[in-house]
Automatic annotation (TrEMBL):
<keyword id="KW-0274">FAD</keyword>
<dbReference type="InterPro" id="IPR050641">
    <property type="entry name" value="RIFMO-like"/>
</dbReference>
<dbReference type="Pfam" id="PF01494">
    <property type="entry name" value="FAD_binding_3"/>
</dbReference>
<keyword id="KW-0503">Monooxygenase</keyword>
<dbReference type="GO" id="GO:0016709">
    <property type="term" value="F:oxidoreductase activity, acting on paired donors, with incorporation or reduction of molecular oxygen, NAD(P)H as one donor, and incorporation of one atom of oxygen"/>
</dbReference>
<dbReference type="InterPro" id="IPR002938">
    <property type="entry name" value="FAD-bd"/>
</dbReference>
<protein>
    <submittedName>
        <fullName>Monooxygenase</fullName>
    </submittedName>
</protein>
<dbReference type="InterPro" id="IPR036188">
    <property type="entry name" value="FAD/NAD-bd_sf"/>
</dbReference>
<keyword id="KW-0285">Flavoprotein</keyword>
<dbReference type="GO" id="GO:0071949">
    <property type="term" value="F:FAD binding"/>
</dbReference>
<keyword id="KW-0560">Oxidoreductase</keyword>
<feature type="domain" description="FAD-binding">
    <location>
        <begin position="5"/>
        <end position="335"/>
    </location>
</feature>
Length: 561
């Protein structure tokens, strides 16, 4: 049997890799995380965190720090030709969540918070270390050859699982599968800039002020311009789209600085009344829309930008990567622990635990758990990619039809924008879609339902809302004599068993450090819900069924005494 150095080797220490490492550590895995860049800081490309992402990070204990560093109630002004429309994105009409808002936060701050949380758990990012070769082992697991930036010899690392969080040019993905999709003929220009005194400019000869402390968004015929008052090396962070140059800059990699006059031209074309006085940093990045043909191969997994890359539309890059990482981290940890134990007895009659080919899962007796990552996340990421591609075509494509549509339709719609932005439910519906609140893993091998002619699950655990594979909403419940938000109960690592008021107790042999049980006193009935560590329903039953509960726990690699 292979003596592995670690359970999980994470390649890449951006937001995705750090989240994956943190989720895996909190669920019992031995983790090592490496990053080829020698320095922690790099200019942020992402600036927006969605409500569902905050929910997913809450059990990791980092949301308070993120909220303290970000702005949960950003003011936004939408610029459409000469019209400026204020948009409210605070306290949206989003029931069932503790975070009814977007969070404006720098990607670099998110990385700092996650890295600090990981260090508190005894895992420090090894920087200046690059995986130069990797291979799958016949007996299960993987071998990675690690090269540091100093003169030390290459190091062999044996791991049960290896996760590539190493971006669009992922070395790990090349060992897993292809990268399907296409390229945009545009690039994103990023810059940290200072503007003239108080953002003064001129329009039609009259002084005009570009309001500070506000996120400015411009939608025009030539594309998108975003301006955030949270620059890292200067007061403002600028993000704009334009036609790519002819120098064939590698996709996803930061290109050379952009001259100040070109940045000013983007401002002027967007109609932003501001004069750039200093450029502290700038870069340009070629855009593409792609998804990996496979998300896993044996012990190798690709996550985040290594698995899919998006346009800037919808602010999905950082968020989608965190969704991937939270989904995968607990599964790898549980699988690693199961691989260290002797194979367990089969489940009861009627409960199936699929078995994988020997050696392909590092001695884990069932493949359903690890296969569920690709089965759940690839369809979700593919749908998200279609959405962002459509949004980007409408907002910024240089296709003549798209440009004509913006030139004609946007001015016609401009008078209606103030009314539209006041419709909080419409705004909330859009945020709910972008934030992935509606995502369900209905067809996952981990989504099980016990059907019987007994009393159905009722009340706050309604069939309409909480089918297997669906997200558990944050509702007010009574537990152990006190009123509490449901997500407060779920805000720690592990599997959570929710019992209705009249359900039987969960046997002690099924509980443990990572298996918790709660009785909801104000929810009448005998039903049971098993909530996965990522907040989705795994098992639903009209009564506490020990056989099916034990089968589900074994399915995800947990021991049942």
């Amino acid at each position: 049997m292979t003596d592995f150095d670690v359970d999980l080797l994470v390649v890449g220490a951006g937001t995705t890799g750090l989240t994956l490492a943190l989720q895996a550590v909190d669920h019992g895995a031995r983790v090592r995380i490496v990053e080829r860049r020698p320095e922690a800081f790099r200019p942020s490309r992402a600036m927006v965190m969605h409500p569902r992402t905050l929910e997913l990070l809450r059990p990791l204990g980092v949301t308070d720090a993120l909220l303290a560093l970000g702005d949960p109630s950003p003011s936004v002004q939408l610029h459409v030709r000469s019209r400026v429309v204020p948009v409210s994105v605070e306290n949206l009409d989003l029931p069932g969540t503790a975070f009814p808002h977007l969070l404006l936060v720098r990607q670099s701050d998110v990385e700092s918070v996650l890295a600090a949380a990981l260090a508190e758990r005894g895992v420090v990012v090894q920087r200046g270390a690059e995986v130069v070769r990797l291979a799958r082992l016949r007996q299960g697991g993987a071998r990675a050859v690690l090269r540091t930036t100093d003169d030390e010899p290459d190091e062999d690392v044996l791991c049960r699982y290896l996760a590539g969080c190493d971006g669009p040019a992922s070395l790990v993905r090349r060992s897993v599968g292809g990268f399907l999709g296409g390229d945009y003929d545009q690039e994103v220009v990023l810059a940290d800039v200072d503007l003239g005194p108080a953002g003064a400019g001129s329009r039609a000869g009259a002084p005009v002020m570009l309001e500070a402390g506000v996120a400015h968004v411009v939608v025009g015929r030539r594309g998108l311009v975003f301006l955030f008052n949270i620059g890292e090396r200067a007061s403002w962070r600028m993000l704009a789209t334009r036609r790519a140059g002819d120098d064939r800059q590698p996709f996803g990699q930061a290109g050379p600085p952009v001259p100040q006059e070109q940045l000013q031209q983007l401002f002027d074309e967007a109609g932003l009344p501001a004069q750039i006085t200093e450029v502290a940093w700038s870069a340009r990045v070629r855009l593409q829309h792609r998804i990996a043909s496979r998300f896993s191969r044996g012990p190798l997994f690709v996550v985040g930008d290594a698995a899919h890359v998006h346009s800037p539309a919808g602010a999905q890059g950082m968020n989608a990567g965190i969704h991937d990482a939270v989904n995968l981290g607990w599964k790898l940890a549980f699988a690693a622990a199961a691989g260290q134990r002797l194979p367990e007895a089969p489940g009861p009659a009627g409960a199936t635990v699929p078995a994988g080919p020997p050696g392909t899962r590092a001695a884990f007796p069932g493949s359903a758990l690890l296969d569920s990552y690709a089965l759940e996340r690839r369809p979700a990421d593919r749908a998200l990619l279609r959405l962002t591609h459509t949004m980007y075509w409408a907002e910024a494509s240089l296709h003549p039809l798209a440009q004509l549509s913006r030139a004609v339709l946007v001015p016609l719609a401009a008078p209606l924008l103030p009314w539209f932005t006041r419709q909080r439910r419409l705004t909330a519906a859009g945020i709910r879609t972008l934030s992935q609140f509606r995502l369900r893993y209905t067809h996952s091998p981990l989504s099980m339902e016990v059907r019987a002619s007994l009393t159905p699950v009722r009340g706050g655990l309604a069939r309409r809302v909480l089918r297997p594979g669906s997200r558990v909403a944050d509702t007010l419940v009574r537990c152990e004599g006190r009123r509490v938000r449901l997500h407060e109960l779920l805000a720690r690592p592990g599997v959570h068993i929710l019992l209705q008021a009249d359900a039987r107790e969960v046997p002690e042999r099924m509980l443990g450090t990572l298996v918790h049980s709660y009785r909801l006193d104000d929810r009448p009935g005998t039903g049971m819900l098993v909530v996965r560590p990522d907040g989705y329903v795994g098992l639903r039953a009209p009564v506490l069924d020990e056989q099916h509960l034990a089968a589900w726990l074994r399915l995800v690699g947990l021991p049942v005494r």
